[in-house]
Every structure is written in structure tokens, then in C-alpha cells.
Amino acid sequence: MADAVTRDLEDDRVTVQGGPLPGRVLVLGGTGFIGSEVSLAFRSTGWAVRAVARRPLLSPSAAAAGVELVLGPAEDPTVLQRALEGVDWVVHAVGCTPPGALTDDFDSTALSVLGLDTLLEELRDRPGVGLTFVSSGGAVYGDVAHLPADEETRCRPISAYGLSKLMAEDSIAAYSARYEIPARILRVSNAYGPRQDGANGQGVIGTVLRAASSGRPIPVFDAGRAVRDFVHIGDVARAVMALRPSQGGPQVVNVGGGVGHSVVQILEMVERLTGARLRVEWLPRRPSDVRAIVLNVSRLHSMMAWQPRDLETGIAQIWHELSTGAARSSDALSA
User: Fold this and answer.
1) What is the per-residue pLDDT for 112?
2) What is the mean pLDDT of residues 205-233?
3) Alpha-carbon distance 238 to 180, whole Å?
4) Does the structure show a pLDDT above 80 at 289?
5) What's the confidence (pLDDT) of residue 197?
6) Per-position DSSP letters for 180-217, written without gaps between them
7) How does strand 183-188 pair with strand 280-283?
8) Are the CB atoms for 195 and 331 separated by under 8 Å?
9) Alpha-carbon span 229 to 149, nearest angstrom
10) For the chain, what are the domain ranges?
11) What is the CATH number of domain 96-329?
12) Chain segment 108-121, per-residue pLDDT in tens
């Protein structure tokens, strides 16, 4: 049973079972793939968690854990003002359309940055409230000359999705410097995990595992030659909590496995682990797809005990949950 959470109206402290909590964190995009995992991770360590989302899709496990839901668009100042009450830390994990679907949609890029600017304006008047921005280590760098890419690598995104993340990073850096907003930008590689809904094309691993379960064909681009750096969502949540925003230290940190795997390797791994014979629909390369990206995670290693789980182990765990029905009962299909 979730702990009973109460509010002290005079000083806005939150207590649980008679003792003070570490604090209150606001997760924007709190019902999404990354946001929901981050919310649950914070609750498991005693934080009070408030999530903002457009739709009431808070998973049963998050509701049972005591995550508070605020409905509304994250870019709405009225919604943000209400959600920011008494908050110590904000995690921006607002999702958007995957890179391949945003090839020419640069209007949505501007809207994405506008929403973040609204948040930054609100944080100007809340000294000490930190911001963690979940960026994309798979899209902001683009096709780089040398791999793995470290945080000093010049970013040349080739998709509107990557451009939106880089523009957001620039806005955060400017506001942080001008108004002393504690900030941390986490460039997360291709995250995967049991709550990833492959039905909507969210992530290659989720898509392939659902196809192994259903027998449906899998669209694979550029003969499966694309190389990606995969990291389990549980490890991402651990990094978010460990790297609390501050004015000192590095602001941008890569969060990934530090190892590259091609899509073909993923297909072979899933067939070996599941025993399924995958049906593949081979398609040409999309202009917005980075050919190869692997992250240098040396900086992350220097800041925390970073030991992400092995990719094959992670995929095997997810398949076990899917095949036994455990994933479904633990909200694996929530998004």
C-alpha cells in the first residue's frame, strides 16, 4: 500500500508516515515512457511526486505509489503555476513525435521550444528550484565523424526532433547562466524497457519484441545498418535521480550504454532469445535517420557509479515479462 501523503498548508512541507520527505519533484510528461519510470523511481526513494500530462493516463502502479497527477499542457502558464507549487526539482521529460515522423515538421519544433521557455520563465521566480532536461543523445549529435561522441562533440542534428532538443538545450543554458537556475541536461541514448509501447513504433526494441509476440511484420530501414546506443529505462531513471541539478559541475551529461548495436544485431538477438522467426519489411533509409551514434559516457562514470545492464540481459528480462503476462500486469503497456 502506498504511504499516506499529507500537506502542511503553512510551509508546504510534505510528510510521510510522520517524517519529512526528501522533497517534491515535478515530472513534466509524467505519464510517458521515461516520465512514468522516473516518477516511480522518485517515489520508491521517498520523494513526493507530481506529474503533469495532457491526458489522464497515470498507470495503476504510479497511482498506487501516490504520484499526484495534474492534467493540462505543460506549456500552459496556469497549469505550470499550479503544478510548481512547493516543488524543489523539475524533470522535463515531455515526449514528442519520433524523429522519423518529424522530418519536415519544423513548426512543431518551435512549439516544443516555446513550451520549455514558458517553464524557464516560471523558474526565474523560484530561486533554487532545479531543472533536469531529458534530451536526446541519439538525435542531437547527428552523423559525427568520430565515435563514441562525447559532450564536447559538435552537434549537427539532421531531424526536426534533434533540432528541437538542441534548441531547448540552448534555451536552458542561457536561462541558467542569466538567472542562476540550477540545471542539468541529460543526453539520453535510445532508451528501452518493459513499459515501451512498440505498438506505436516507439523504440526499435519495443517494436521488435511486440512483433516477436504477435507475428506482425517489422519495418526495418536501410537494411538494418543503423547503429544505436541502447540503455535500459531503469538505468536512465537512476541517472536522473543521481545527477541533481546544480550551478557547479558539468551541465551536459551523456547517459547511455557506451556500446553500439546495429538494428540487424537487435533482430538476431531477439530471434535467439525468443525463438521467434521475425517477419521483416525492408524499407529504404529515411533522411532523418542518423546512420550511427554511440555515446562516450566517461563523464557520467566520473559523477556516479554507472553500471548499466547488459543489453541482452535487459531484452531477456522484458521478453520474460511479456511472455508470462507479468509486464501487462505491471503496466507495461502504459504510455
Assistant:
1) 64
2) 94
3) 25
4) yes
5) 66
6) ---EEEEEE-EEE-TT--GGGT--HHHHHHHHHHH---
7) unpaired
8) yes
9) 11
10) 96-329
11) 3.40.50.720
12) 566 566 679 899 99
**15-24, 53-62, 144-153, 158-167: which has the minimum mean pLDDT?**
15-24
Residue 1 has pLDDT above 60, yes or no: no
* Residue range 46-64: mean pLDDT, rounded: 85
Expressed in percent and rounded to 5, the helix, strand and coil fractions of the chain are 40, 20, 40
Nearest-angstrom CA–CA distance, 173 and 185: 9
* Contact (Cβ atoms closer than 8 angstroms) between residue 252 and residue 187: yes
Contact 128, 182 (CB under 8 A): yes
Taking only the tens place, the pLDDT of each residue in 87-97 is 999 999 987 65
Closest Cα to residue 19, out of 49, 61, 44, 48? 48
Query: What's the CA gap between 277 and 105, in Å, rounded?
Result: 36
Radius of gyration of the chain (CA): 20
| β-bridge mates for residue 178, sequence order | none
Per-residue model confidence (pLDDT) at position 10: 33
Centroid of chain to Cα 51: 14
What pLDDT score does 56 carry?
Answer: 78
Average pLDDT on 29-49 reads 93
Cα–Cα distances in Å, from 226 out to 122, 167, 291, 305? 40, 25, 5, 29
Kindly give, in sequence order, each residue whose CB lies less than 8 Å from that of residue 298, ignoring residues fewer than 6 positions away: 150
Rounded Cα–Cα distance for residues 151 and 146 (Å): 13
CA 285 from centre of chain: 25
Instruction: Please enumerate in sequence order all residues whose Cβ is within 8 A of that of 76, keeping only pairs 6 or more positions apart, or say none.
Output: 118
Query: Grid coordinates in use for 332?
Result: 507495461
Average pLDDT, the chain: 85
Which of these, 224, 223, 231, 300, lies nearest to 263 by C-alpha position? 224
How wide is the angle at C-alpha 217 spanned by C-alphas 214 and 223, nearest 5°?
140
Could you tell me which of 279, 224, 285, 230 has the C-alpha nearest to residue 257?
A: 230
Q: How far from chain centre, in Å, is Cα 212?
A: 24
